[in-house]
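Design request, tokens follow.
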């Protein structure tokens, strides 16, 4: 997960925020992993979802 979402670079450390963001990252990786319309890595799917709203809705 660190390679795709750069978890080690995250500076969130206050209250429950680290746990909340870890959960959101895990959900993101699961959703992108289950999406089989395009065959590429999680990092590329993440970039595609950020740039293409139609793909984001599909995910």
């Amino acid at each position: 997960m660190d390679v795709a979402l750069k978890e080690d670079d995250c500076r969130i450390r206050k209250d429950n925020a680290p746990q909340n963001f870890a959960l959101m990252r895990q959900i993101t990786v699961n959703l992108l992993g289950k999406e089989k319309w395009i065959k590429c890595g999680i990092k590329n799917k993440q970039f595609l979802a950020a740039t293409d709203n139609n793909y984001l809705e599909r995910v």
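Comment from the thread starter after seeing the answer: thanks! The mean pLDDT is 84.
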